[in-house]
Design brief:
heterodimer, A: 527 residues, alpha/beta, six-stranded mixed beta sheet, 17 helices, 23% strand, B: 348 residues, mainly alpha, ABC transporter involved in vitamin B12 uptake, BtuC, two-stranded antiparallel sheet, two-stranded antiparallel ribbon, 15 helices, 73% helix
Chain lengths: 527, 348
């Protein structure tokens, strides 16, 4: 280990507080990052990790707190972009690369941004330099390759190299050439077997005295790469542990907040007997063979960590994304998933409420009536013409029964609040009385009141015999809503939770535990 | 073949230019102004030229009105052809070339080859439909921006027209076509004006009172929403290009009837006026939506202004000033309105 004892910390945060409205996102949080250290930052969704990172990126202003970098105090809040001058860099999950440009262009963009716009660029020199840099970090890609021609892991490597180079270029007086690189779930979408290349690079980075803060939900990876782990829960520090001394169970307990009782893999719950939809070996973008079935009158939750493939399930079953399955049965009718289109799914009584309301659910510039009634327009043709008055009246009563406010069918959809927009999307689909309802993050970006209404509406639909499948990473919501929850890990169904196990803590724990590979050994360098 | 997910957003963004809808929150007067602003402006322009000393003798005459309404039928029909793909967020730059091709086919087949006029017209219409199918096939199969594809196909058709006409102007098409287009009048206005009106009315009915109109709107505004709502997006876009090809070919036939022949180049000059009118029309009647009635109003608003200035002694440059200016102003206006709408939406 390269931790130099006695040297000033690369980064020290103390007493960090931040609230949004009435909600306390961070209270009295401390974070210490030692030189040459890889620090894991863990916590479930909403634990405050992203708020902390956004404060350091100058995106949020904290209510209180103290920041020292390289032993020198820095005044908070930081201005946007100031982190660069302080020697910090952030690589987020989306990597921030321009896919249609070359590796070289992506590497130099940070440098170019600081230079005069009319200064001539010597591409030849830049190319040589980029090749050198890539070689220095053992990243085997050609500078002239387009980013989108690279494997995902190589794209991540390029993003990290760029961040490290930008960091080195700053040479902050504070840091004596070190720096802190924040990696925010860099591995969520990478194949497990290729993560080692990323880890090799990360170790090389800290070899120079810089530090890396590694944010991930994947406990195996965190245990493999980090020296110490800091865990946040509900906006507070709950502990910092030496990685060598922490078992998976220890970490899960810290993250979830109470000891795990032994899980029993129970059989499927007995509510409802008729299978509404069953699919065998469902495969898609990230899904690698999931078998599941939903019964009429049941709400089935499908969840997992980001990148596990759970969010593909509703889109695949609606024919909205390409995929395959060995068998797909919807109410005794055998369908071929490869050929399934949204139209056919609709005709079979399947409805999909997509997670991206703005892009997939509705058109903001059209009226509420148009958005609500799109599916049933054909029913309103009378003697060759649409009956707009009846359409508007019916849209109005729909808004009444789904509590969509204000009750103006002619108002443009974008002027409704997020919660009311989501209720409208629900109303649009539920009025068709679907037999199978597929949901993806049904309450994302929705206020508390609307959230309750939406969950109630979904339960009511189930009570009337609709089979509901809800893909979500909101574990609390799943616990409230579902009769059964399937945990997807590495593209397969890894666990099933029913009955008393349906608590937020159990679901979170199962997502974390199942994402780990049982045989994962602590690598030699750590022993 | 499975058509997966997401069609390029760029096309949709392009045609969101002109995207506006008056929210109920804004004043009633504002709503009326937005809806009928173009018609009001048209009336004002007409009144000004009727009382202006330089034009009061020549502008408000039956003859001049007949000229204004009659002479622009070709542009009006061409504008209507554009409105359909625009509503689906597709650009069709080939419309003016299809017009030229159609008029040239009528002239070549009827004059040079001595075909009966109806047969020549049928071939011209079929050619328009064919171009629409080819455009759509390339755009949808290879998923390319419609702007690029129709720019290419339009120029290609322009070349074909030069080829089949030997770069000659051909005159002397069947007098019966000329009679039915420009000689015969109703209420003093040549019949071609009523053809444009009839096409506009039919389109208005389809846009407003048939489900296909609303589906077209969703295809234009939210491809993904439309697809997930079970609408066959590809089929509707294909239909849009076919209708645009067919109506452009009709415009070509009317052009042949108006001029009594065809020339290989001048049709392409109508592309910009048609675009200007389509975009200006989208700021009115149904603000924010490409709509046939607004498009017709825009065509006649523009030509009224141009005619007035020409009566004042302005030369042909005034046309370019008007059409070019109108296109930019129309787009800027709708962009302004969008900003306002976003503000109002934000307040709620």
């Amino acid at each position: 280990m390269t931790v130099a004892h006695g040297a000033p910390l690369n980064l020290k945060l103390t007493g960090l507080c931040k609230s949004f409205g009435g909600a306390q996102a961070l209270s009295d949080v401390n974070l210490e990052v030692r030189p040459g250290e890889i620090l894991g930052l863990l916590g479930e969704n909403g634990s405050g990790k992203s708020t902390l990172i956004k404060i350091l990126a100058g995106f949020h202003a904290p209510d209180a707190g103290h920041l020292e970098i390289g032993g020198v105090p820095c005044e908070l809040p930081l201005a946007p972009g100031q982190f660069r001058k302080l020697g910090m860099q952030f690589v987020h999950q989306d990597l921030g690369l321009v896919h249609s440009l070359s590796v070289l262009e992506n590497l130099v963009i940070g440098e170019l941004a600081t230079q005069h716009a009319l200064r001539r660029i010597s591409w030849k020199a830049e190319r040589c330099r980029a090749a050198e840099v890539l070689e220095k970090y053992n990243v085997d890609v050609r500078p002239t390759s387009r980013v989108d021609s690279l494997a995902p892991v190589e794209q991540a490597l390029v993003a990290i190299v760029r961040a490290v180079e930008d960091m080195g270029r700053v040479r902050s007086a504070h840091l004596r050439g070190a720096g802190v690189l924040f990696l925010d779930e860099p591995t969520a979408f990478l194949p497990k077997e290729q993560v080692d290349r990323l880890f090799a690079l990360i170790r090389q980075v800290v070899g120079t005295g810089a530090s890396v803060v590694f944010v991930s939900h994947d406990l195996d990876e965190v245990r493999a790469i980090t020296h110490r782990i800091t865990v946040l829960r509900n906006g507070r520090n709950v502990g910092t542990v030496e990685t060598k001394e922490a078992s998976i169970d220890d970490l899960v307990n810290l993250i979830v907040g109470r000891a795990l009782t032994d899980e029993v893999h129970r059989g499927p719950s007995q509510r409802g007997t008729a299978s509404a939809l069953s699919v065998r070996n469902l495969r898609g973008r990230r899904l690698r063979g999931a078998t599941l079935n939903v019964r009429a009158g049941e709400v089935l939750g499908v969840t997992g960590l980001l990148g596990s493939g759970f969010e593909d399930v509703p889109y695949l079953l609606f024919g909205a994304e390409p995929g395959t399955a060995e068998a797909l049965t919807v109410f005794d009718a055998d369908l071929r998933l490869v050929e399934l289109t949204p139209r056919q799914a609709l005709d079979r009584g399947i409805a999909l409420i997509p997670g991206d309301r703005q892009r997939d659910g509705s058109v903001g510039s059209l009226s509420a009536t148009e958005n609500l009634m799109l599916l049933v327009l054909d029913r309103y043709v009378h003697t060759g013409a649409l009956r707009w008055r009846k359409l508007r009246d019916d849209a109005g009563s729909l808004m009444e029964s789904f509590d969509i406010r204000p009750r103006c069918p002619e108002l443009v959809y974008s002027s409704f609040s997020g919660g009311n927009q989501q209720k409208a999307v629900l109303a649009k689909w539920l009025q068709a009385k679907p037999r199978v309802l597929l949901l993806h993050e049904p309450t994302q970006g929705v206020d508390v009141g609307a959230r309750l209404t939406i969950l109630t509406l979904i339960r009511e639909a189930a009570a009337e015999g609709t089979a509901v499948l809800c893909a979500s990473s909101d574990y609390e919501q799943l616990a409230q809503l579902c009769d059964r929850v399937l945990v997807i890990a590495n593209g397969e169904v890894a666990w099933e939770l029913t009955g008393a196990q349906l608590t937020k803590e159990h679901i979170t724990a199962q997502c974390l535990v199942n994402a780990t590979v049982p045989a994962a050994a602590v690598p030699a360098w750590q022993q | 073949m499975r058509r997966s997910a997401l069609v390029t957003q760029s096309v949709q963004n392009l045609s969101r230019i002109g995207d506006r809808r008056t929210p109920r929150g804004s004043s009633w007067l504002g709503g009326v102004a937005a809806r009928y602003g173009l018609l009001i402006a048209w009336a004002i322009v007409a009144v000004i030229f009727s009382v202006l000393p330089g034009t009061s003798a020549t502008f408000p005459t039956v003859n001049n009105l007949a000229t204004i309404f009659g002479s622009q039928a070709v542009v009006a029909i061409l504008t209507l052809a554009l409105v359909v793909p625009l509503a689906a967020s597709d650009y069709d730059l080939s419309v003016a070339f299809v017009l030229t091709l159609s008029s040239m086919l009528v002239a070549v087949l009827n004059v040079n080859q001595h075909w009966p006029i109806l047969a020549a017209m049928a071939v011209a219409l079929a050619a328009g439909v064919f171009v629409g199918i080819i455009n759509a096939a390339v755009i949808l199969f290879f998923r390319i921006d419609s702007l690029i594809v129709t720019l290419g196909s339009g120029t290609f058709i322009g070349g074909i027209v030069l080829l089949i006409s030997n770069t000659n102007t051909i005159s002397g098409v069947s007098p019966s076509l000329v009679r039915w287009v420009i000689i015969n009048r109703f209420l003093g206005i040549p019949l071609e004006f009523y053809y444009a009106l009839a096409i506009g009315a039919a389109m208005w009915y389809a846009f407003v009172f048939l489900p296909i109109g609303t589906k077209l709107l969703f295809v234009g505004r939210g491809r993904s929403v439309a697809r997930l709502s079970g609408i066959n997006v590809e089929r509707i876009r294909l239909g849009g290009f076919i209708v645009s090809g067919l109506i452009s070919a009709l415009a070509g036939i009317v052009y042949a009837g108006t001029t009594g022949g065809a020339d290989p180049t001048s049709g392409s000059l109508l592309l910009l006026p048609a675009f200007a009118a389509a975009f200006l029309g989208a700021t009115s009647i149904y603000p924010g939506r490409f709509n046939p009635i607004g498009a017709l109003a825009a065509v006649y608003f523009l030509v009224t202004g141009i005619t007035g200035f020409q009566l004042l002694g302005a030369q042909s440059y005034v046309q370019d000033l008007f059409y070019g200016g109108a296109l930019v102003i129309a787009v800027a206006l709708s962009q302004l309105a969008r900003g306002r709408q976003a503000l109002e939406a934000g307040k709620g």
